[in-house]
Each structure stands twice: as structure tokens, then as C-alpha cells.
Amino acid sequence: MAEYSAFSLLRNALSGNRDWQPAWRKADPKPSYDVVIVGGGGHGLSTAYYLAREFGVRNVAVIEKGWLGSGNIGRNTTIVRSNYLLPDSIRFYDHSVKMWENLSHELNYNVMFSQRGILNLAHSPGQADDYIRRGNAMRHGGGDGVWLTPAEIARFAPGVDVSPKARFPVVGGLLQPRAGTARHDAVAWGYARGADRLGVDIIENCELTGFIRDGDTITGVRTTRGDISAKKVGVAVAGSTGRVMKLAGIDRLPIESHVLQAFVSESLKPLVGGVVTFGGGHLYMSQSDKGGLVFGGDIDGYNSYAQRGNLPVVEDVMSEMVAMFPAVARLRLLRSWGGVMDMSMDGSPIITKGPLPGMYLNCGWCYGGFKATPASGFAFAHTIARDAPHAINAAYTLDRFERGYIIDEKGQGATPKLH
Ligand SMILES: Cc1cc2nc3c(=O)[nH]c(=O)nc-3n(C[C@H](O)[C@H](O)[C@H](O)COP(=O)(O)OP(=O)(O)OC[C@H]3O[C@@H](n4cnc5c(N)ncnc54)[C@H](O)[C@@H]3O)c2cc1C
């Protein structure tokens, strides 16, 4: 498969763009593989890519029930950041940001990673103390936290209402300059192409319907395209984790599935350069290269597997948006959609061997698994190939909930809506 380059663009332009090859093969399932990954989202595809590239495991299949990009990887608001407080989170997410910085180059695929910064607005002295403490922890962990005054915020994000008369006056904000956004579906396509080039079979329209077992040990998968045996099976199905794990007889997990909605407005001239989050509620927004405002808020407050949400959250998100950016009150909304989130009970992910022999589990991404896509794939591939976690995911076990070693960034407890 040809490299993408300025030269290949020119060559294909001159031949009327008729000679481009598909970015990955439409593979049919083979009877057996060393590793089968269930779920062709960002995490499943990046796992397959790093298994082949970093660990030399190339007899790998990714099975996806729909088409690549149909899950959360193609539905998120594309924020990439590592502005965390706890050492386990800083280590993992900072590693991920570093991987993002070279990702387009490594994959030979433009994922449009744009380090435009993320600014968390603070609206009370208590919240400011909390954010400054987090910024300090980020710096201790080798990261980049910077405190901005309201005047500096007005320069970074001119649309934010920083006047003392604002409904939620802004007292300052925590900026992470290295954070940013990327093009979400390009990440899925880039990893798919990269994995395919290394020999991985990517099998779309292939739904897992059950597991093949030898006693407790998982020895393969049953799918809508036949049985496939596998030495190891990795599960990376995000919001479908509960349903898929139930097929293996695992009834209870510290995960709830909820809908999260996202919104895009009509295009505007540049209003805000980076990502801005509102501290008076839960809202995050950025402006796409096409000019639309891309934003989201809380999960819908009930469990669901539907990829669509309900109006109370829409109303909530819009009112927060107008509180933060009064100038957009008459802007029209272009589109909205929903994705099914795998909300863990401490807000942190699970990347682990088990819970059954022959099985490996990757889930619990809550609102924030897109930014983790490179590090999650690398760490999960390490865990599968070596049967042991990498240092960056050693804390993300399933049994931490039993042992009381939860990684609860905000100290919110087992309340998915608050993570
Ligand atoms: C609206 C919204 C906004 C978000 N914003 C951000 C953000 O700004 N930043 C951020 O970091 N994160 C964000 N996220 C979260 C992020 O998108 C997810 O945490 C991450 O994409 C999950 O991992 P994934 O890409 O592997 O999931 P998915 O893309 O959902 O992949 C899982 C795949 O498994 C497949 N599958 C399920 N069951 C089966 C089966 N039985 N057999 C075969 N395949 C199966 C599904 O079809 C799906 O394609 C957001 C999510 C949503 C919905």
C-alpha cells in the first residue's frame, strides 16, 4: 500500500483521483488467530496496531459488529488533555499526549492533532484553589499547568464573559497549553490502515454473539460470521461492555452504560482558539476548523444502550453555553447525536488481564477515552502480549474496587454523572 505524501497527492490529482487504494482490506475471518480483539473502535484498533508493531504479534483479527467509526470513536468532542491530579492518571494520560504529538507522522495519516490548549474556568475562590492545586500536581508530574487571570482569559478566549456582572463570574482558569483536539474518525481510519499494513485482519459487520470456552478458559469467539478460535481474546467494546461480558457469564461489573450527547452549531468566524470548560456546571466546547462550535455536557441521567439522548440534557447544555458565551444566544444548532458511555464507578479506566483465563478487558472510559486512544492501545497490547501490565496501566485493575484502591480524581464516589 502506497505511502501518503505530497507527491502521492499530486500523482493522484494528475490521474483524476481514480487510483487511490482502499485504506484497509475487507478481510474475511480465518478459523483461528493468536489474538482476537472484540470492538473496532479507537481502542480495539490501536491495540491491534501496537500488538503488531511493538510486540510482533501479527496474527490478529479485530471484529467489529458495525462499521469502523460507528461507536464512540466517531461520536466524541475530540478533546485531548492530561490535566489530572492523581499520579496514576498523570502518568497514563501524559504518556498518551506524548504519543499524540507524533501520531500523524507515525501512522502516515493526518489525524489533525492541534495543540490549541484547554482552559478550565473557575468561578469561586474554592474552585480556584482546587484548580491551582491540580495545576501544581500536573507540574510535579512533568506536565504543563498554567494559571490565567480573567484578563488573560479574555485574550485566550475572547467570547468568554469575564465581566464581574456575569451570572457565574470568572475568577481565573487553569490552562494546559499542550492539550487540544484531533479529528476523531481519522484516528480510527489511521489506526485501521496502520494495523492492516502490518497484517492485522479487520473484519467489519462481524458481531460477537458468544465466547468459546474450555471450562473457565476463553478459547475463541462465536460471531455472526462463524466461530473463530483464539489463544487470547481482548474485549474493547466501550458502552457495550456489560452486554458483551454477560455473554461470558460475567454479570456484575463496576460499569454503567449512559448516553452522552454532543452538539455542533452553524459556522462562525473565529470565536475561541482553544478548548474551554465551564466550571459553574459541566460544559466543554471548542471551535472546529470549519467554524462550528463543538460542545457537550453531562450524560443523560439514566442507563441506556441507545445512541441518542433526551431533551433535559439539551436544555441544560444550552443554558450553560449561554452563561459562558452570552454572544452565542441566537446561534443555531446544526446537529446533535449520542454515544453510549462505559462509566466506571471511580471515573478511571480498566485495562487488565482477565477476569477469565484467556480474556483481557479494556473499558471504563467514561467521558474521556478518546484522548487515551494511543496509550490505551499500547498498554492493552502490552498486557495481552506479555501477560502483564505496562507501568502506565498497572493501577487500572478490575480488583481495585474490591481492594479499596479506587482512582477517584475528584473524590466524587460511585456516581457516574459526577465523573
Ligand atoms: C458525545 C461524546 C463526547 C465525547 N467526548 C470526548 C472527548 O472530548 N474527549 C475524550 O477523550 N473522550 C470523549 N468521549 C469518550 C470517547 O469517545 C470514548 O471513551 C472512546 O471513544 C471509547 O473507546 P472506543 O473508541 O474503543 O469505543 P467505540 O468507538 O465505541 O468502540 C467500541 C466498538 O465495539 C463495537 N461492539 C460492541 N459490541 C460488539 C459486539 N458484540 N461484537 C463486535 N463489536 C462490538 C461497537 O460497535 C464499537 O464500534 C466522548 C464520547 C461521546 C459519546
Q: What summary fits the major beta sheet? A: 8 strands, mixed
Low-confidence stretches: none
**Cα end-to-end separation:** 42 Å
- Ions and ligands: flavin-adenine dinucleotide
Mean pLDDT: 96
* Radius of gyration of CA atoms, rounded to a whole number: 21 Å
Strand percentage, roughly? 25-35%
Assembly status? single chain
Query: The CATH topology of the largest domain is what?
Result: FAD/NAD(P)-binding domain
Structural category: alpha/beta
Envelope shape: globular
Give the C-level CATH assignment of the largest domain.
Alpha Beta
Number of helices: 11
- SSE string, helix = H, strand = E? HEHEEHHEHEHEEHEEEEHEEEEHEEEHH
State the share of residues found in helices, binned by percent: 25-40%
CATH superfamily of the largest domain: FAD/NAD(P)-binding domain
Q: In the CATH hierarchy, what is the architecture of the largest domain at level 2?
A: 3-Layer(bba) Sandwich
User: What's the total count of β strands?
Assistant: 18
Return the domain count.
Answer: 2
